[in-house]
């Protein structure tokens, strides 16, 4: 299937923008691809024919011996829990109807039969019968390699790290709006690289609403469904000034910060106002190598954030976040860093404050190093789309004037919405069942 993806997407060219936007090269936007897997893992070109099936009672398992020589073991309780018959599964909703209270966790198969090497049938002690297609079972093999491949298929975790050498992927706005293959490329690249520039949108408000409809819907926040970044009197956000914005992620003050951000350039100042981005995951990994203690402090210390004001409605938001958020495997999954909204309240012992500041300073220095940051300038009609959990962004200062000289419209989307659209587009583009 992934070779088909590469074939479908091969040949669609986009511009890769270097720091000097007058210098253009071409590069292919990245399709969603998976690494090769170990022998015995599920693969689209691997035979799913079953050689033999057995169910040793003492193991509470069903063993499937595949024609390719591999073996899969399926716990009986899992098989019964995932019966696909109409009584146990609502196919129109792809949801389980079987009540957990009716599930026997010690269940074993009474009888297992094999049909045409492509389907197994299990009769349970209560005479209920369940059938499972070979391909369905193969995808859900419990081996480590098969589980890893399925997770890659579902969540596309592969990342391409970058620094000042970033070649900013570009694709025309109209293409992603009306061409599913281009939209699929856009979202695949956004997931893998973390940033994509859409070009050629109309230089007026409202284009981000269209973009929201393309993926599903935008994220509503206290600043509205969209918001206008421009110099404002009595600004309720530092972005609404002409000053420099240091590297930050948006909205760490929310329990669940927006996953994706869109910034549409409607008007651009002649001097200043250049945009800057940095790969926070890449820099976090550098910090971990360079100073493991600093990394440990930033990945374990809960930092207080606050945001109080009036916009779409009045608000008083408070939250605690670790600046480097890691998952159970120790992998960086989100950066929560916004110096402007970091609270004066700091809920840690006094003796830990200075080590925290030292760790944060080292992280911030890495973010701002010439090696890691990439600078570019948006022009009217450009929409930069980026991963707000990974990519920190900033802005150089610009001169204020008697009228608005620089105007960006912004919006957010959640990764749940973006990934949903990506999966649907992949199914459509690759004709997957």
UniProtKB/TrEMBL annotation:
SUPFAM superfamilies referenced in this protein's UniProt entry, alphabetically: Clavaminate synthase-like
- Which residue intervals define the domain Gamma-butyrobetaine hydroxylase-like N-terminal in the entry? 58-137
Q: Does the keyword Metal-binding apply?
A: yes
Q: Where is each TauD/TfdA-like domain found? A: 163-412
Keywords, in A-Z order: Carnitine biosynthesis, Dioxygenase, Iron, Metal-binding, Oxidoreductase
The entry lists its GO molecular-function terms as: gamma-butyrobetaine dioxygenase activity; iron ion binding
Q: Which reaction does it catalyse?
A: 4-(trimethylamino)butanoate + 2-oxoglutarate + O2 = carnitine + succinate + CO2
Superkingdom of the source?
Eukaryota
Which Enzyme Commission number(s) are on file for it?
1.14.11.1
Give the record's pathway.
Amine and polyamine biosynthesis; carnitine biosynthesis
Q: Which GO terms describe its biological process?
A: carnitine biosynthetic process
Required co-factor? Answer: L-ascorbate; Fe(2+)
Q: InterPro entries, per this entry?
A: AlphaKG_dependent_hydroxylases, GBBH-like, GBBH-like_N, GBBH-like_N_sf, TauD-like_sf, TauD/TfdA-like
Cellular component GO terms, alphabetical: mitochondrion
Q: Which family does it belong to?
A: Belongs to the gamma-BBH/TMLD family.
Return the NCBIfam families for the record.
Answer: carnitine_bodg
Q: What does this protein do?
A: Catalyzes the formation of L-carnitine from gamma-butyrobetaine.
Protein known as: gamma-butyrobetaine dioxygenase
Q: What organism is the protein native to? A: Anas zonorhyncha
Lineage, broadest ranks: Eukaryota, Metazoa, Chordata, Craniata, Vertebrata
């Amino acid at each position: 299937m992934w070779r088909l993806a590469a074939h479908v997407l091969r040949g669609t060219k986009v511009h890769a923008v270097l720091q000097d936007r007058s210098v253009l090269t071409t590069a292919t936007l990245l399709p969603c691809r998976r690494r090769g897997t170990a022998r015995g893992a599920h693969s689209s070109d691997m035979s799913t024919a079953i050689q033999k099936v057995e169910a040793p009672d003492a193991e509470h398992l069903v063993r499937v011996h595949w024609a390719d020589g591999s073996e899969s073991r399926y716990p009986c309780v899992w098989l019964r829990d995932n019966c696909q018959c109409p009584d146990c599964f609502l196919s129109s909703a792809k949801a389980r109807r079987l009540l957990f209270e009716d599930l026997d966790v010690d269940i074993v198969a009474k009888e297992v039969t094999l049909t045409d090497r492509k389907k197994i049938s299990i009769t349970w002690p209560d005479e209920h019968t369940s059938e499972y297609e070979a391909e369905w079972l193969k995808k859900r093999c419990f081996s480590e390699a098969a589980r890893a491949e399925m997770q890659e298929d579902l969540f596309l975790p592969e990342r391409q790290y970058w620094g000042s050498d970033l070649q900013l992927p570009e694709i025309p706005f109209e293409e992603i709006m009306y061409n599913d293959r281009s939209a699929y490329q856009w979202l695949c690249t956004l997931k893998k690289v973390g940033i994509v520039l859409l070009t050629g949108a109309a230089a007026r408000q409202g284009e981000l609403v269209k973009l929201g409809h393309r993926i599903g819907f935008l994220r509503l926040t206290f600043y509205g469904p969209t918001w206008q970044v421009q110099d404002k009197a009595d600004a309720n956000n530092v972005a609404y000034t002409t000053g420099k914005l240091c590297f930050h992620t948006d909205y760490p003050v929310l329990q669940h910060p927006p996953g994706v951000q869109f910034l549409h350039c409607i008007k651009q100042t002649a001097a200043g106002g250049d945009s800057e981005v940095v790969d926070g995951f890449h820099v976090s990994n550098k910090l971990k190598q360079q100073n493991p203690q600093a990394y440990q402090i930033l990945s374990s210390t809960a930092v207080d954030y606050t945001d109080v004001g009036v916009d779409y409605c009045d608000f008083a938001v408070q939250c605690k976040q670790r600046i480097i958020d890691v998952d159970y495997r120790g992998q960086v999954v989100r950066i929560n860093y916004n110096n402007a909204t970091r609270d004066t309240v700091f809920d840690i012992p006094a003796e830990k404050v200075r080590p925290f500041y030292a760790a944060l300073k080292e992280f911030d220095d890495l973010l701002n190093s010439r090696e890691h940051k990439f600078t570019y300038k948006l022009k009217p009609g450009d929409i930069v789309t980026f991963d707000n959990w990974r990519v920190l962004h900033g802005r150089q200062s610009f001169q204020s004037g008697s009228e608005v000289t620089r105007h960006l419209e912004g919006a957010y989307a959640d990764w749940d919405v973006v990934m949903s659209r990506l999966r649907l587009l992949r199914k459509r583009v690759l004709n997957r069942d």
